[in-house]
Structures
1.
Amino acid sequence: MLELCFQYEFPEAGCDEAGRGCLAGPVFAAAVMLPPDFHDPLLNDSKQMTPRNRDRLREVIEREAVAWAVEAVAPARIDEINILNASFEGMSLAAARLEPQPGFLAIDGNRFRTQLTLPYACVVKGDGKYADIAAASVLAKTHRDEYMCRLAEEYPEYGWRKNKGYPTREHRLAIREHGLTPHHRLTFNHEIDQLELPFV
């Protein structure tokens, strides 16, 4: 069972991102402040949840959270500042939009940089330890998946409805055949390492 938050001295927002390892699409980041009595037995690290449970929890979180916000950082911005900094930027933007403002941020991961003046703590695998970070992981993941499914209607050949822009074999083969879209991250490696199509 997840602890509600990292500390109880200040109102806390949990922050997480989704899509850092993708070849296409924005990185999405979320910040969530939960009420002190929040509990849902399905809530966990979003990667450990089924898509159906993530969608269900998204509705619960968005309805019951004290405050929540989701931000997307575009592929062009990712190429400009790199994916790690884009993740930091997305979480900072999401946290800055919260109303009321938190007094503390709990960040999933081992590093964070921000221009916000809020105190924060980085928590490795925090989305499997604290409910507010897990809630942020659910919102970031579900909002990003929804966005990629919309893009898939425009670019069906890349399999984004299924792979959500991650570097699957199918996705890399589609890039080889059809080239890059405006939604691909140009600084990422799109090649298929040691994968050659067999000659028949």
2.
Amino acid sequence: MPELPEVESARAVIERAALGRLIVEVDDSDTYVCRPHRPGEIRSALLGRRLTAAHRRGKTLWCDTGDGPVLGLHLGMSGKIVIAGADGSEIDGGDYWEGRRVQGDYRWSRFALTFEDGGRLMLVDPRRLGRIGLDPELTRLGPDAATITAPEFRTAVTTGTVAVKARLLDQHAIAGIGNLLADEILWRARINPARPVDELTAPEVERLLRATRKAITAALEHGGVHTLTVIPFRRPGARCPRDHAPMSRGKVGGRTTWWCSAEQPVPATK
């Protein structure tokens, strides 16, 4: 599933290749991806406008259109933003599309903007789990995980009694961390995912903050969450790449979770 680094890649694609271009056609016919808007509603709002800026907080992506409505884009589980030329060739798709300048397979395009020169911006989404909407609600998102300050992080992580992984996944507390990134962060910090947040010590919280910053930086630099260190070892029979102890698996916060059996010990039962 796209997490903060993948969504940042999509934002950068729009910023590089779509801003300032006159929109002359809009395909908003997919009533599931564009819900609750009726077919033609997004089209009417965007025709004759230009995307003027691309923004991201956490996994949420949106574009300004000058004095027009805000266009919200959510990638869902498998969506990608792809820019195509008038001839159908891929111009830009970010690190997660590998920038193939070839004729694209756009059968899974769920939403598209066509520009004056014939080029297009598309949400390509095989699983049809992305969302497109006007004026998305942003106020409930927590601070962005890539830019969160130390005081904001401490407040978000230490409030309440939930498992620390569940707190990292809470987009209202910290926006942008998904299941894989959370496992990487906790592995780097050597903290068990099930530890209650009210039991974390001050040094552990600082380790967690450093691990969050380093994991996100590494994912942004190297092409996504899938490039992070522990991700290939989230599988049966795998051993921790740091100390070679067996990897453990369980459910935390309703999500499949992996951790090092030696360096991330299960918290003692009270």
3.
Amino acid sequence: MRKKIKCPHCGSESGLEHRIYMKGYDLYTGNGELEEEGVTEYNYRKTMTCRNCGKRVMTYEEFKRDYYVDE
């Protein structure tokens, strides 16, 4: 059974948010068809925040270690 994550600030069990930022490109041919796409930069915040109140709950590393389940 998975551990339930509860926000220590507001008590919500609605979940966590983790922001990811990506920069990339799309290249199109002269007739508008997608020719190539790619990601050139990938960054993420190091903290997980409550979806309800927006306050910091834990680091992303703590989340991966204690809660993340790869199915």
4.
Amino acid sequence: MRTDPPAGRPRDAPAPAWRTSPPAITAPPVLALAGGPAGHVPQDRPAGLAEAVPDARLVTVEAGHLVHETRAAAFLAAIGEFGTG
């Protein structure tokens, strides 16, 4: 019998330590994509992630939480620019 947590658990309730470990990310560059103040994530969090991770870039697309759905063209543009920059 498997005792693994449900697939959504890490996404829905991440381990508290993940917020203290961004400097350990060693696969730069990193894109932190934020949805702006209309989203439910306080804007200091994506900004803090971008500051904490070496060689990270913060892009804010004023779209709220579902950037990839609400502003798909801007989302794809941000990804594209990041991938070629």
